[in-house]
Specification:
By secondary structure, the protein is mainly β. It is about 15% helix and about 40% strand.
Amino acid sequence: MNFKNSIFILLCLLSFNCISQTSKKSVYTIKREPGPKASKDGKCKFKIKFVGADGKPHKSGARLTFNNDTVLPKIDAEGIYQGSFPEGKCKITAFVPYWNDIITDSIPFKKGEIITIRLKFEAKEIKNR
């Protein structure tokens, strides 16, 4: 085996190792749509879509924190949790076991809008002990 082949094989092995160690981060997107000007409870409506790493809806085991209040959301068969929040800003943290957490920036909730927040989770890297 010549020197060029040895270097090529070494670089391939190192790049494969680096790629396999790369962990994807969970991400979120926000979509705003016009909604009712006033809801019955005077709050802003929202939907949260839970999506797994495979792109399919996630239906259970999630925990959400809105600012400092934690809830165990009831997620439907399509991976959607619906609710309402008072007008103002809210930071949301989403936890699902074995997946990377999602922490949003402060999201402004406004009356007259329906906010859809899509949470796409990626698996946590398994660490050797």
